[in-house]
Specification:
The complex is a heterodimer of chains A (about 350) and B (about 525). Chain A has two domains: about 5-200, Thiamin diphosphate (ThDP)-binding fold, Pyr/PP domains (Rossmann fold); about 215-340, Rossmann fold (3-Layer(aba) Sandwich), CATH 3.40.50.920. In chain A, about 35% of the residues lie in helices and about 20% in strands. Chain A is built from 13 helices and 14 strands. In chain A, helix 4 packs parallel to helix 5 (about 110-115) and helix 9 (about 230-245) packs across helix 13. The longest helix of chain A has 15 residues, at about 10-20. Chain A starts with a strand and ends with a helix. The mean pLDDT of chain A is about 95. Chain B has about 525 residues and is of the alpha+beta class. Among the domains of chain B are: about 1-130, RNA polymerase II/Efflux pump adaptor protein, barrel-sandwich hybrid domain (OB fold (Dihydrolipoamide Acetyltransferase, E2P), Beta Barrel), CATH 2.40.50.100; about 315-515, 2-Layer Sandwich (Chloramphenicol Acetyltransferase). Helix content of chain B is about 25%, strand content about 20%. Chain B has helices spanning about 85-95, 105-110, 170-175, 195-205, 235-245, 260-275, 295-310, 325-335, 345-360, 405-420, 425-430, 495-510; strands at about 5-10, 20-25, 30, 35-40, 45-50, 55-60, 70, 75-80, 315-325, 365-370, 375, 380-385, 385-390, 390-395, 395, 435-440, 455-460, 465-470, 475-490. In chain B, strands 9, 12, 15, 16, 17, 18 and 19 form a seven-stranded mixed β-sheet that branches. Classes of the chains: A alpha/beta (about 350), B alpha+beta (about 525). The interface of A and B includes residues 210, 246, 270, 301 and 342 of A.
Chain lengths: ~350, ~525
């Protein structure tokens, strides 16, 4: 299999394009997918069609290749996007709906939380809802409190939704293809600070199963559990500590729901010391869920109290300086590791 | 009944992983008594003599001088005269220790070895040689015996070929146990194989799995001290065990669904009452008023070195008070303005000592007692005393005079972390030209320190306190720090020590000088 150095953004687009080529029922639904020309497209007549492709250019070129029937620009109305996509999924299509910023899920939460997530259950198992909801998460771009959140913890609390948060380009492509082929609604969270990060990605389509953690570092003294962009910060801290002789294992669960409990617990059993890094929330977040899992299932293995590294319980600040202070970083992770090691 | 016992590489200190045999002090064939010095073993930290753990006859030396072996590896075999050489050969072959086991061998080729020959042993069963490197099921303290080690049935043995879906830890365990994962059924998502699946398969195929070892470890053999809250037990058994001080790990589980029940706890209590633990110090059977804590190697090393210093070096001490208001102001300013830098007062003291040593190089020395010569160093390598639960160690900030305060601070922090995790390498704590010992954080006003040989002087630093001082005839409040310099009079005279303190005062009281 040939590999290419590819950005997270290109890996996501490749997954979308390859799945659309493979399966004619895969359609894209969202705002500005083809470049800010919702409703009419004068470029169609002029033959000049290469448009921007969404605010971050992820879907650039898809409309050119697949046309208006399969790349559908919508008005600015999240409830319509997800409502339409959920209905399309019920009728047999495999829609990929883009919310742009996951922060906007509140507008369409009923369609997601009380409709799409419940269809299979409410229709006695006779309905499938092969829906993917894509969107950006994460702070770090000075996008302020309404465009910087990471609500994967909210989605993960809903039975019936699968929640994916890839930390690198390879995972992004494999997990997105898996999401599209999955017969249940999947919320696919793309961290906005990762779009330009490159990694080795196979050119051909491939899938990564849900609920399988990736160990980005293997070690024996401390387990760091981190998700999405926090994996990179954890790797940085792990590499620095490795130079000092502290051997750190970094576990990236990759999917919040389903969660690879074995992958987490086996690592904790082997190290006995845990640091959990989570950008989602200072309370009731992904990190707290994992901490509860470890406390209930691996208490006997722990040599030190579990340490959590999360932002404070505040909205994300706009000021770049405050935002950097708000975000967990490698230095805070390192300090937490030192704390559990010396406990 | 004939009895064969093993002498194994001991675990001296938390970080010890292997030892090198330097000399045998008892010859093959000679008899020895418990407590006799058997051989000399050198570790990365220390050279020490191994005391015989029991009486016996040294029938076979397995580890030749110069060999480096992991903790728990077989050093020698002891047996009564009645035991024939052939029996010893057979025994060694059975436990796979006829050659000194390297970790690779230990994990790599258990195929032909039968289960450890437990029945021939009385008080000192061999460590589970075949599988002692199993990460999840075996403690690193190999001298600690577990009831039963992991024994893999032959049917499962082999090498994993090709793509098998397994967790990273399952994969590692299979490697360590030489299990072919193709023969293990995965019950995880997508059929993934977990560590628990491997254990289940071993049990189903007739093998045994060593019980899990919880992290809290104890040097006393026989009794468990780990957390037993996850051991299945009936509520009554759990309550009874707690009241009798019995750990549930030490109980058999004969109750329904594999639970420890009341009779198991009673049985364990009887067992402990009848058989005092092997190797434990003889002490009153019940409710001792004191606890016997064995002298650790680290304590011995501390005792030996400081006793030597106190005996050989004629100490004299010089005490002075330093005013640190300016230093505290500078520290506050730096910490408030430079992100990611958190200087401690001690970082300043280390830096000031290094700077003062540059001015008074005759204090920046080591005294070589063997050749009766003074080694004067150009760079100031400052040892910093770090307290550990098990003792104390003095990691070194090399070339401290050439480093900035921030660099010194970062380095001290990193050395302290390593010291606390037992990861210091020898060159990080051996040597040095001067030591700083600071008890300020404990609110000690002033104390004397013993010189850290082969160095010539040590500075004992107390707590910074607001004290009344007289300035121009007025009593005013100033933050004062009392330091005491202990010097070795063989190599440093009073005036020289005083000159050092004068320079130290200059840097501490005008801290800006440290920045230029």
């Amino acid at each position: 299999m040939t590999m290419s150095k590819t950005t997270y953004r290109e890996a996501i687009k490749a997954a979308l394009a390859q799945e659309m080529q493979r399966d004619a029922t895969v359609v894209q639904i969202g705002e500005d997918l083809r470049g800010g020309q919702a409703g009419t497209n004068p470029e169609l007549e002029s033959g000049k069609v290469e448009a921007f492709g969404g605010v971050l250019g992820v879907t650039k070129g898809l409309w050119t290749e697949f046309g208006s029937d399969r790349v559908i620009d919508t008005p600015i109305t999240e409830s319509a996007i997800i409502g339409m996509a959920a209905g399309a999924a019920l009728t047999g299509l495999r829609p990929v709906a883009e919310l742009m910023f996951m922060d906007f899920f509140g507008v369409c939460y009923d369609a997601l939380y009380n409709q799409a997530a419940k269809f299979r259950y409410m229709f006695g198992g006779k309905a499938r809802t092969p829906l993917v909801v894509r969107g950006m998460i994460g702070a770090g771009f000075s996008a302020a409190a309404q465009h910087s959140q990471s609500p994967y913890n909210v989605f993960a609390a809903v039975p019936g939704l699968k929640v994916v948060a890839p930390s690198n380009a390879y995972d992004a492509k494999g997990l997105l293809i898996q999401s599209i082929r999955d017969d249940d609604p999947v919320v696919f969270c793309e961290h906005k600070t990762l779009y330009d990060v490159k990694g080795e990605v196979p050119d051909d389509p491939y899938t990564i199963p849900f609920g399988v953690a990736n160990y980005t570092r293997e070690g024996t003294d401390v387990t760091i559990i981190a998700l999405s962009a926090m994996v990179n910060a954890a790797n940085t801290a792990a590499d620095k500590l490795a130079a000092e002789g502290v051997s750190v294992e970094v576990v990236d669960p990759r999917t919040v729901s389903p969660l690879d409990e074995e992958g987490i617990l086996e690592s904790v059993d082997s190290t006995g010391r845990v640091v959990i890094v989570d950008e989602s929330a200072a309370r009731c977040g992904f990190g707290h869920d994992v901490a509860a899992l470890i406390a209930t299932r691996a208490f006997g293995s722990l040599k030190a109290p579990i340490e959590l590294v999360t932002p404070p319980h505040t909205p994300v600040p706009f000021s770049p300086v405050l935002e950097q202070a708000w975000l967990p970083d490698a230095a805070r992770i390192e300090a937490a590791v030192r704390k559990v090691v010396s406990a | 009944m004939s009895e064969i016992k093993l002498i194994e590489v001991p675990k001296w200190g938390l970080s010890m992983e292997e030892g090198t045999v330097t000399e045998w002090l008892v010859e093959e064939g000679a008899s020895f008594s418990k407590g006799d010095l058997i051989c000399e073993i050198e570790t990365s930290k220390i050279a020490n003599q191994l005391e015989a753990p029991f009486n016996g006859v040294l029938r076979r030396i397995v580890a030749k001088p110069g060999e480096t072996l992991p903790v728990g590896a077989v050093l020698a075999v002891s047996a009564e005269a009645a035991v024939s050489d052939a029996e010893i050969e057979e025994f060694l072959a059975a436990i796979g220790a006829d050659q000194a086991p390297t970790p690779a061998e230990a994990g790599g080729s258990p195929g032909g070895h039968p289960a450890p020959a437990q029945p021939t042993l009385e008080s000192s069963p061999p460590s589970p040689v075949a599988h002692e490197s199993v990460p999840v099921t075996e403690t690193t303290n190999a001298s600690r015996q577990r009831p039963g080690s992991t024994i893999v049935p032959e049917a499962l043995q082999g090498r994993t070929n090709g793509d098998v879906f397994a967790t990273p830890h399952a994969r590692r365990l299979a490697d360590d146990l030489s299990i072919d994962l193709a023969r293990v059924a995965g019950t995880g998502r997508e059929g993934r194989i977990s560590v628990a699946d491997i254990h289940d398969t071993i049990r189903a195929a007739g093998g045994t799995v060593a019980p899990p070892v919880s992290p809290v470890r104890s040097g006393v053999p026989g009794r468990s001290f780990e957390d037993d809250s996850t051991v299945p037990a009936t509520p009554v058994a759990r309550r009874l065990a707690a009241s009798l001080g019995i750990n549930l790990h030490d109980c058999r589980a004969t109750g329904s669904r594999g639970r420890v029940c009341e009779s198991d706890v009673r049985e364990a209590e009887r067992r402990f009452r009848l058989q005092p633990e092997v190797g434990a110090a003889p002490e009153p059977a019940a409710e001792a008023e004191f606890e016997t804590i064995p002298f650790t190697t680290m304590r011995k090393a501390i005792g030996q070195r400081l006793q030597q210093s106190k005996r050989n070096a004629p100490h004299f001490r010089l005490t002075t008070d330093l005013q640190i208001d300016d230093l505290l102001a500078l520290r506050k300013e730096i910490n408030a303005t430079v992100p990611a830098v958190k200087l401690s007062v001690n970082d300043f003291i280390v830096k000031a000592c290094a700077a003062a040593l540059q001015k008074v190089p005759d204090v920046n020395i080591q005294f070589d007692e063997a050749t009766q010569s003074v080694l004067r160093y150009a760079r100031a390598d400052i040892s910093v005393a770090v307290a550990l639960p098990s003792g104390l160690i003095t990691p070194i900030v090399r070339n401290a005079d050439g480093k900035t305060l921030a660099e010194i601070s970062g380095e001290v922090q990193s050395l302290v972390t390593k010291a606390k995790t037992g990861k210091l390498t020898a060159d990080e704590f051996q040597g040095g030209t001067f030591t700083v010992s600071n008890l300020g954080m404990f609110d000690v006003r002033k104390f004397d320190a013993i010189i850290n040989p082969p160095q010539g002087a040590i500075l004992a630093v107390g707590a910074g306190q607001e004290r009344p001082v007289v300035v121009d005839g007025q009593v005013v409040a100033r933050t004062m720090l009392t330091v005491t310099l202990s010097c070795d009079h063989r190599v440093i005279d009073g005036a020289l020590g005083a000159a050092f303190l004068r320079e130290l005062r200059r840097f501490v009281e005008s801290p800006a000088l440290m920045l230029v």
